[in-house]
């Protein structure tokens, strides 16, 4: 196993060629759709994202129920409800921080399996809650599990997926998170809040059972010197009839170059800090588009604007559009390419946020705004708008604009930022850097979610939307200048691309 599986050294790559050199991989497609095992392993892993999406919106039906609770120990004030909703993001940030160590210590698969422990404990605390502290601790533990899986699952999926379907498989974490959220909304119509927590245990248990039969990442196994196990894992994932020698050689060469942990001196090398900086900035800019506060305060926003349909119906429609958009992204990511979808996504979100800001500023206000949904009786408009009964078609604007915003986000800056994070991060720093990306993402989400009401109170609802629109313009510029196209490239080619230190990777 110490000798190369092929007689000649594999080629290095100075840039992204138009076509990869001929190899057995081209003659025998590795991980082709006829081999279902790689899809089974992906499904087992992304069950963690289902739990994440479920936990993220758990408070949506629960907060109203607890605000009306007859038990004084569980009855939530507005301030307590705000903490119950936002403490999840602090737990997720802690989970991302832990992933910086666990991703490389336990491995990608075992880290995902470990996340089931805090997830199950958190749901158990909320299901049996007798006071606010149990609710908050349970919420933070489920957030910790979500942050850990958010950092580990994209890395695991990208490392087991062949290049030809890595884009589609890379979109499945976002897709499963949306399924988890929609499942929570559906169950919320049928089950009381304690049983919603009990139901949340199911996906975590299913994930840990299925993953126990799946292989670890071949790249992680090679980095730990377990070559024979890595070769078996790759053969299992690609199928009995696939010729894995060329792919295994490429992975082995890349791992041998980066077998040591990254030092501070190496971190200053452009081939290291450029992809890490791109991944960090993408996670930061993704949150600054406003996705988290818009989802958290979706129904209150509709209650505070003149809308034609009931706000709860509007929220359900937006959720369905989100699911459809993620499905479209999953099928087009390996056809259209990452950068094209990022451009379309940012442009769509810019138009939607600008439209929402203009509507709040100059459009009609509702005749009797609902003041019981968590936005603290705030008059949103910065100008005096006419009070109208929402019956004209112009009052469809908030729903349509929000639908386009969610559609734009779900087709590009939602799933692709997670996929690119796992694709461009160098193997030597992939575990640590992915955890850092999740940490930055959720700290930004917490800051935006907690400050949203303060900004609305001081300046009006239109100001956050105008700010989010400006960020989307920055995203367009950032995509054009800094994001490389990775469609159809192996992870080894992508790392070689950054090692060239050429400015061409910025185009």
From TrEMBL:
InterPro entries: MFS_dom (IPR020846), MFS_sugar_transport-like (IPR005828), MFS_trans_sf (IPR036259), MFS_Trehalose_Transporter (IPR050549), Sugar/inositol_transpt (IPR003663), Sugar_transporter_CS (IPR005829). This is Solute carrier family 2, facilitated glucose transporter member 6. The keyword Glycoprotein applies. Keywords: Glycoprotein, Lysosome, Membrane, Sugar transport, Transmembrane, Transmembrane helix, Transport. Residues 1-31 are annotated as: Disordered. GO terms for biological process: regulation of glycolytic process. PANTHER family: PTHR48021, SOLUTE CARRIER FAMILY 2, FACILITATED GLUCOSE TRANSPORTER MEMBER 6. It is found in: Lysosome membrane. Coiled coil: none annotated. Belongs to the major facilitator superfamily. Sugar transporter (TC 2.A.1.1) family. Glucose transporter subfamily. Probable sugar transporter that acts as a regulator of glycolysis in macrophages. Does not transport glucose. One of its GO terms (molecular function) is transmembrane transporter activity. GO terms for cellular component: lysosomal membrane. It comes from Pteropus vampyrus.
